[in-house]
Automatic annotation (TrEMBL):
Keywords: Acyltransferase, Fatty acid metabolism, Lipid metabolism, Membrane, Mitochondrion, Mitochondrion outer membrane, Transferase, Transmembrane, Transmembrane helix, Transport. This is Carnitine O-palmitoyltransferase 1, muscle isoform. It catalyses: (R)-carnitine + hexadecanoyl-CoA = O-hexadecanoyl-(R)-carnitine + CoA. The lineage of its organism: Eukaryota, Metazoa, Chordata, Craniata, Vertebrata. The keyword Transferase applies. Residues 174-740 form the Choline/carnitine acyltransferase domain. Catalyzes the transfer of the acyl group of long-chain fatty acid-CoA conjugates onto carnitine, an essential step for the mitochondrial uptake of long-chain fatty acids and their subsequent beta-oxidation in the mitochondrion. Belongs to the carnitine/choline acetyltransferase family. It is found in: Mitochondrion outer membrane. It comes from Electrophorus electricus.
Length: 759
């Protein structure tokens, strides 16, 4: 009855003597506190908006410029070369604006214009400096004097105490590579995958495209690169993600795991309480733009645009294409448990709920024994199946009444939370523990994650946690940034009592979470069941294997004077060749966030040099010295390709955009059609680690993340994600499909090969 008691905050009764009003002081207090919090938030956002808008200068610098100009005027000097006098003559004459006032106002206007011009000059200078990428191609540990000078200039023009979005206006645009460079690098990348006749034919087709069609398509890309902030990102989001009509579960969404070795508490409600509170703190700083921007080498800023849609975001299904809906100032959370959906308010008295209060709320949900309403149990499977049936069902059955109200609650919630009734996590004594943990996070039961939300937080009954993330709005490093902050806050700042509960007192005045109501007709239930069956077939077809490799890590690899990422990529090439007996087109994701609104680029890891190394490893005629020489050559090639991709000189996003332009112009290109249809049978990605450096893993060696993963990109291929943790640990997440009889994860990871291949 707590919610009923709180609802009666305002009462009135009609009597013969008039109307008597009764106002609840407690409710008025909460209204007042909520208003204060709202205005404080607006004030902070306004202040931070000004700080970001004038960065790398500061608001106080305006006063300095005004004082300097006014002082020169009184000293009978004119630094404006007559402009102040010209401005004064343009001002209207009135009784309130004397000649002296006109001079002062003219000087202030000139000083303001001069100040803003200096800001633009600083930004332009910084943008020019950030357009230099020679530093990234220098050997590791050997910095030239010119790079040292450049780095000093970047630091000087970067200002002090930047906010999350301070550098956005100073980031350079993503350059459009030349057609010649892209075609040349493409042909080089497919050379080891084609025989002589196939390669010659591809060379002819590529050269015809370069000569006839490419110049016209390239002109449109040049135009877009100057008109739009980024010539790739909007098309990439729309055509790669939002226009896909197949299930996003497994095919698009990815997951991130909890700490590998430890669980801070085994109490499910307590872990959920701390983690949700940590997420609310992270969101508050994000809304205010107070997070420190990521910077390569601690100097070169990364684009922060993807952070904006982390919370209160959902992918909305459409018949032809989906859209991403981002809301602001939503103060609730939707929780799924045993087929029921609950709405939970995250604020009380103008503040976030405390961890102990959240634990209390989640325990109410866990203790609720009510049954799901008809059609409610598997409702979320609509987001796991094909997009068109979900879009049609949404229009027909969820556009009005209680269904619309409840669906709006889910889609506008801060994020989606599942209190899972299973226990998962890494157990060294159970070989399949990582595999089951990965499958649970990637697809679960196909109806217990809302796959359309920006991310679904999963809290298992043993206290383990994880995240399932929708991919269209952002890439894995953005989720990784948030996840590192949350795990550190949970364990080191909030903590738990000796009994495993959240710290703090229980608030008995809180209203319990409310059930979302549904009125789902039989026809809609049939659509839900059909989506569930499609999703279940997809989930059952996915095979996962997690490999926690502890024999050595980047510490030993660096002693060998090579890049850990190049080492692992070459090891994957060797493992794949031993498994399949052939090479394949290989995808490795790299980022382009040194450019405004940059997302990712592809590194084609299967090269002429890497195949030569692999073949040497399989040929007993080669000596160890010869193999090592080939390895170093292949590793250097891979590092150079990775650097090219990061600096905007990759080939795949360029070819993708040329393909989109060709379709918009109705130009048929055999070359582009073939390039875009080539399957990525080995898709790989490295999970970033310690982006924030919040925890010293030398001091806390058990406090390491388990990384995350994704499903296979091709039906007959592998998806491989890996995380290089500390000096002595590498964790792999490998996926494939049972329906491909050629693939077999156990054959990819035999123990005798794992150590030698560096897995």
């Amino acid at each position: 009855m707590a919610e009923a008691h709180q609802a009666v905050g305002f009462q009135f009764t009609v009597t013969p003597d008039g109307i008597n009003f009764h106002l609840s002081r407690e409710v008025l207090k909460h209204i007042y506190l909520s208003g204060v919090t709202s205005w404080r938030k607006r004030a902070i956002q306004f202040k931070n908006g000004i700080l970001t808008g004038v960065y790398p200068a500061s608001p106080s610098s305006w006063l300095f410029v005004v004082i300097a100009i006014m002082s020169s005027i009184y000293a009978r000097l004119d630094p404006s070369l007559g402009m102040i006098d010209s401005i004064r003559k343009m001002l209207p004459v009135s009784d309130y604006l004397t000649s002296q006032s006109q001079t002062v106002l003219s000087a202030i206007l000139f000083a303001t214009g001069l100040w803003w011009s200096l800001i633009l000059l600083l930004r332009f200078t910084l943008k020019v400096l950030l357009s230099y990428h020679g530093w990234i191609f220098e050997p590791h540990g050997k910095m030239s004097s010119s790079t040292r000078l450049w780095m000093s200039l970047v630091k000087m023009f970067s200002g002090r105490r930047p906010l999350l979005y301070s550098f956005q206006a100073s980031l350079p645009r993503l350059p459009v590579p030349s057609i010649d460079d892209t075609i040349c690098r493409y042909l080089e990348s497919v050379r080891p995958l084609l025989d002589y006749d196939q390669y010659k034919n591809m060379e002819i087709v590529a050269n015809e495209f370069k000569k006839d069609q490419a110049p016209r398509l390239q002109k449109y890309l040049w135009l877009k690169s100057w008109w739009a902030s980024n010539y790739v990102s909007d098309w990439w989001e729309e055509y790669i993600y939002l226009r896909g009509r197949s299930p996003i579960m497994v095919n698009s969404n990815f997951y991130t795991m909890d700490l590998l070795y430890m669980i801070p508490t085994h109490r499910q409600a307590a872990r959920a309480g701390n983690v949700v509170h940590a997420l609310l703190q992270y969101r508050r700083k994000l809304e205010r733009g107070e997070h420190i921007p990521m910077r390569a080498l601690g100097v070169v800023p990364m684009c922060s645009s993807q952070y904006e849609r982390m919370f209160n975001t959902a992918r909305i299904p459409g018949i032809e294409t989906d859209c991403v809906q981002h809301m602001r100032n939503r103060k609730h959370l939707v929780v799924y448990h045993r087929g029921r959906f609950f709405k939970l308010w995250l604020y009380y008295g103008g503040r976030h709920l405390l961890p102990s209060e959240l634990e209390q709320q989640f325990q109410c949900i866990l203790s609720d024994t009510s049954e799901p309403q008809p059609g409610e149990l598997k409702l979320a499977s609509l987001t796991a199946g094909n997009r068109v049936p979900w879009a049609k069902a949404r229009q027909k059955y969820f556009s009005e009444g209680v269904n619309k109200t409840s669906l709006d609650a889910i889609e506008t919630a801060a994020f989606f939370l599942t209190l899972d009734d299973e226990a998962h996590g890494y157990d060294p004594d159970r070989a399949e523990s990582m595999d089951l943990y990965a499958k649970s996070l990637l697809h679960g039961k196909c109806f217990d994650r809302w796959f359309d939300k920006s991310f679904t937080l999963v809290v298992y009954k043993n206290g383990k946690i994880g995240v399932n993330a929708e991919h269209s709005w952002a890439d894995a490093p953005i989720i990784g940034h948030m996840w590192e902050d949350i795990l550190a806050t949970d364990y080191f700042r909030l903590g738990y009592t000796e009994e495993g509960h959240c710290k703090g007192d229980i608030n008995k005045g809180l209203a319990p979470p409310s059930r979302l109501q549904w009125d789902i007709p039989k026809a809609c239930q049939e659509v839900i069941e059909h989506s569930y069956l499609i999703a279940k077939d997809l989930a059952d077809d996915v095979d996962f294997h997690g490999c926690v490799f502890e024999e050595f890590g980047k510490g030993l690899i660096k002693k060998c004077r090579t890049s850990p990422d190049a080492f692992i990529q070459l090891a994957l090439q060797l493992a794949h060749y031993r498994d399949k007996g052939e090479f394949c087109l290989t995808y490795e994701a790299s980022m382009t966030r040194m450019f405004r609104e940059g997302r990712t680029e592809t590194v084609r890891s299967c090269t002429i040099e890497s195949t030569a190394f692999v073949q040497a490893m399989e040929d007993t005629a080669y000596t160890s010295e010869q193999r090592l020489a080939l390895f170093r050559k292949a590793a250097e090639k891979h590092q150079n390709m990775y650097r090219l991709a990061m600096t905007g000189a990759g080939i795949d996003r360029h070819l993708f955009c040329l393909y989109i332009v060709s379709k918009l112009l109705d130009i048929e290109s055999p070359f582009l059609n073939q390039v875009l249809s080539e399957p990525w049978r080995l898709s790989t990605s490295q999970t970033p680690q310690q982006q924030l450096n919040l925890v010293d893993i030398q001091k806390f060696p058990k406090y390491v993340g388990a990384g995350g993963g994704f499903g296979p990109v091709a039906d007959d291929g592998y998806g491989v994600s890996y995380i290089i943790v500390g000096e002595n640990l590498i964790t792999f997440h490998v996926s494939s499909k049972y329906s491909c009889l050629e693939n077999g994860l156990p054959s990819l990871w035999p123990e005798h090969q794992a150590g030698h291949a560096g897995h």
